[in-house]
Amino acid sequence: MELSEYLRWAEKALVDGDEAQARMILHKGQKDFPESADLYLLFARVAEKREHAVYCLRTAKRLDPNNPEVNRLWMEIKNSGWGKSSLVSGIVDRLAEH
């Protein structure tokens, strides 16, 4: 399967409200495309734990340091001190809503 297919199917699952299915698709996609910042950014939206969402964003930042969405979220989290602050919770909650 191509990267675009993984992303499309994961987005469809997310739109359908099936975050577990989206996670499963993205997990498979990570095995085939471990260097995809887009995949990690989408995975951050369906992460079950705050720490996993932050990990996904950090990985996306490493893979695509010029991605505007990654950089925006990266700066918000970095400025929060990477802690479990309400800012980080808010970012993760906002990602989950998209």
What is the general shape? globular
Q: What level of helicity do the residues show?
A: over 70%
CATH architecture label: Alpha Horseshoe
- Distance N terminus to C terminus? 24 Å
- Count every helix, treating DSSP H or I runs of 4 or more residues as helices: 6
Instruction: State the CATH topology.
Output: Serine Threonine Protein Phosphatase 5, Tetratricopeptide repeat
The CATH homologous superfamily is named: Tetratricopeptide repeat domain
- Low-pLDDT stretches: none
Number of strands: 0
Mind describing the biggest β-sheet? none
Structural class: mainly alpha
Number of discrete domains: 1
What is the C-level CATH assignment? Answer: Mainly Alpha
Structure commentary:
With 98 residues, the chain is an all-alpha fold. The chain has a single domain (3-97), classed as Serine Threonine Protein Phosphatase 5, Tetratricopeptide repeat. The chain contains six helices and no strands. The longest helix is centred in the first third of the chain and has 14 residues, at 19-32. It is globular, with a radius of gyration of 13 Å.
SSE order and pairing:
Layout: H1 3-15, H2 19-32, H3 37-46, H4 50-63, H5 68-79, H6 86-97
